[in-house]
């Protein structure tokens, strides 16, 4: 076959393996740092690995309205997250560069959110439907924010290709990059909602208030959903680092790769610190917050169109 | 919703360090008058069954096997650790120890059973009989609680039916 | 091989579902204490979850009541195997101080099979952590039945009906169910 195609596939697989290995560790760091902020000891760093292995060993109970759809959605959730990982640059340029562009990236990120909706719908109990109603409202307000950031980068770079956009292109204007800075602030303020942590984990991790869309899942299907959640943390942090904090990505192999993972670690620590000290928002408060941010983001996109 | 209050919250949490007790590794001392599991000292017990009469959860059963032997059995399942048995014991044979680590997978592990020798009256060989009916009401005499099924059995001198007024309630658990 | 690994991981990450079927909430508060930073039980990997389908261990407290017996049974059946049930407190172990009251069916083991008992009213948080540690296998249990016999010969057992004389006026014998 074409050596380019082989390189693309091998790069994609390498990304997937790295995400599979690192994602539970990031979640473990998150739980440990939360415990430190709450002045207690907390679980060991490898705890999410134990959790996932234990869930894989439990009995699979078929329940809910349509078990076949439940099985399909559990696998789709993890598959969507890992496919997104192939398009994200992780220290190297994005592997599947020629096979997709940022439009595909936006749709794959939305697919990850839709898997939660389908999951709750397949379960069909009252609490699940309530949870997916809230998730729908959040998604409508939230996905445009990331799309606007990527589009602003595309406008500045002049193309939709992944390596052109995911390279700090929001700052690529002569003079002070106003649109880039505004979008940095907007994305920073709403990042917690993308990775589904407090204060914006209104739908999915809402186990304390109601059981949410994941209520009827048990055993291996729940393991797949939890893995997808952990993978989304890593992937969103990687995208944020590639888009808004690109300095140093041109360094040669060991340094550039380590610097990238250091950036992801810092982002995870910031997410943890915010999650440990805040309370959860209600759905109407969150929607008002996102509406305000959307207005600002559209203004930034207009500025980007004018070349600022 | 100010950012400084969140910083202060994080700083308070971090400054406290780690307050977690290292529990199963290091045992934790208990306060002085802590009421843990009651321990029955068989050498001091005279078999008066005052503890059995005063237990609010009816956890102490007494069975007179014959004139000389009285079995006292403490079932610890419902014990509320109130300490009434040790307060009322005339010989101070019951002490509320400081033990609270009583988790087990078989509830019969918390049972304590004492087979006691009751000495008999030297003249007639039996407990003496009171003449006044009021004093007769206070004498409990023989006790025969059911030790196998762990039930208390009352015995009184009234005219009542022997069938229960309400049948046992059956619940379907499908 | 994967199955062995998964079974070994069971003791290191137990997810707990708390079910109160009619108790006074004293043991509820002690279970809540166990999850606070002072007695932190998350260092064993234990997490509180809101749905019985996610849980491995059910912490039952309160006696089994007429009104909640079916709900308790449904929650137990909803948990995926392998599962454990802990009965916490005197009410769940033996019916509690209101064992002869009208809505109480008895201890929780009349409705669901119980694996571990943690007696107490309410049990101290350390006692609950000790019970969890015994279940996981970290420590040994410390109680065992005590029997003291002052006489060892075969003693004839008299039935109550043999002890009644002819002229005695004993008519009512009420058997009290425990």
Structure characterization notes:
The complex is a heterotrimer of chains A (308), B (174) and C (178). Chain A is mainly alpha-helical and 308 residues long. In chain A, 69% of the residues lie in helices and 0% in strands. Chain B has 174 residues and is α+β, with helices and mostly antiparallel strands. Chain B has a domain at 33-138: Alpha-Beta Plaits (2-Layer Sandwich). Chain B has a 3-stranded antiparallel sheet. Chain B has a two-stranded antiparallel sheet with strand order 1-4. In chain B, a hairpin with a 4-residue loop joins strand 2 and strand 3. Chain B is elongated and about 85 Å long. Chain C has 178 residues and is of the alpha/beta class. Chain C has one domain (2-136): Rossmann fold. In chain C, 25% of the residues lie in helices and 18% in strands. A 5-stranded parallel sheet of chain C has the order 2-1-3-5-7, sandwiched between helices. Chain C has a two-stranded antiparallel ribbon with strand order 4-6. In chain C, helix 2 packs across helix 5 (125-136). The model of chain C has no long low-confidence stretch (mean pLDDT 81). Classes of the chains: A mainly alpha (308), B alpha+beta (174), C alpha/beta (178). Chains in contact: A-B, A-C, B-C. At the B-C interface, strand 5 and strand 6 of B face helix 3, helix 4, strand 7, helix 5 and strand 8 of C. Strand 5 of chain B pairs parallel with strand 8 (146-149) of chain C.
